[in-house]
Write a structure and sequence with these properties.
Distance between the termini: 51 Å
Number of domains: 2
Radius of gyration: 26 Å
Mean pLDDT: 80
Order of helices and strands: HHHHHHHEEHH
Number of helices: 9
Strand order of the largest sheet: 1-2
Strand content: under 5%
């Protein structure tokens, strides 16, 4: 062992805090305050790979659509809050959900089998393209027409008491605040 207080005191070495070294800093701005977000190249490449079967449609969503994952007022690749291109990871991650194909009509025929799947596996079944209904006692859902679905919903709304009725809608089933 060496000599002196630094060499003989293992706690000093263990809890030693490194000095500030500006030569190791990327910027004088803490956490990049005032700078635009980093470019998410890895996420962009992953998004291209995930949507390779629907690249034209995915490009249209990104360049002409809105971001359904945030509240920055995104229209196309720009928003009303940040100058420059808006391409956040939330938007990139949701793109696959927006471009996926429709699930097979019989994918929801057995609810017991669906209960064994993880949320990710359920999402991979595809998007719901038609109204589906599960009646009491049936093992799963069956496809119904849009007219049947609208009539059923209207009947339930009319039957509800005014002080016991509310509607909550969102594109992903959770509030915007949950994302952040």
């Amino acid at each position: 062992m060496g000599h002196g207080p630094k060499a003989t005191n293992p706690l000093r070495r263990r809890f030693h805090r490194p000095r500030w070294r500006p030569e190791h800093w990327v910027s004088w701005r803490p956490n990049g305050l005032g700078l635009q977000k980093p470019n998410h190249y890895k996420e962009m490449l992953t998004t291209v790979a995930e949507n390779r079967g629907q690249l034209r449609y995915a490009t249209r969503i990104l360049t002409q659509g809105v971001c359904d994952g945030c509240a920055l007022g995104v229209a196309g690749l720009h928003d009303w809050t940040i100058d420059g291109i808006h391409l956040c990871t939330t938007r990139l991650n949701l793109l696959k959900v927006n471009t996926m194909g429709a699930m097979a009509d019989d994918a929801l025929a057995d609810v017991a089998a669906l209960r064994t799947r993880s949320p990710a596996q359920l999402r991979e079944l595809g998007r719901l393209a038609h109204p589906m209904l599960r009646r009491r006692g049936e093992p799963g859902f069956t496809r119904i027409s849009w007219d049947q679905a609208m009539a059923l919903a209207a009947d339930r709304v009319r039957a509800a008491l005014p002080d016991r009725f509310g509607i909550f809608t969102t594109s992903r089933g959770i509030t915007n605040e949950v994302y952040y």
